Amino acid sequence: MTQRPVYEMALQLQDRARQLSEGAAGEKEAARVASRISELTARLAELRREVTVALALKDQGAAVVASLPAASDGLEPFTRRAENGWPGDQAFNTAKRKVQEAATAIREENLAAWVEWSGRRLAALPLARIPMLPPQEQASARSRRVDLERAASAKTVTTGDITLFMTKWESLAESLRDAKEPPAELLALLERLDSRPAPTLRDITDQEIALLREFAMDGQVSLTRKGA
Hints:
This protein is 70% helix and 0% strand. By secondary structure, it is an all-alpha fold.
């Protein structure tokens, strides 16, 4: 069963559950059903959120393979029973468990798809061009890069996360689109400066210092005296 039909089934089931709660029945039975409906509705809302995330990821080209059969296994029998009156506790519990299992499975698959997709989007950015931007634009570009990398490593994902990621990705991609590729010697020097242990001033030549100044990167390098 595809994502959309199960999503629609969840909405239909919520409507039917509300109808049952409004029907005429004994006070005790109505209270029991109302409690079960509340529990099931919470699980359905969780399932709906995860399906919505899966659809959003799919719209962005992520490889999403949602596990929805378990949800339909629990929803379809419950729906049939609900059409004929008050479902028993077993029917509610089975539906609730199946929906919870489906939501958990889809959440895990969403996260795996998010990690793969966001990593692929980051890899598509020419991040090596950041040093070639004007100093102020470099700071903004680095900030957006950090935000994107942090989002890509998140342990949960929402539709808002996807939208914000794409907004920042597109902004950074636009900034880097017309930037020149940095010279190989600059990239090699930056890699050395980022290494640990960091090189000392004695390890940096006058030509390399001039190279940093040429590309307005001398203000991004700090000097720390050993033993200070």
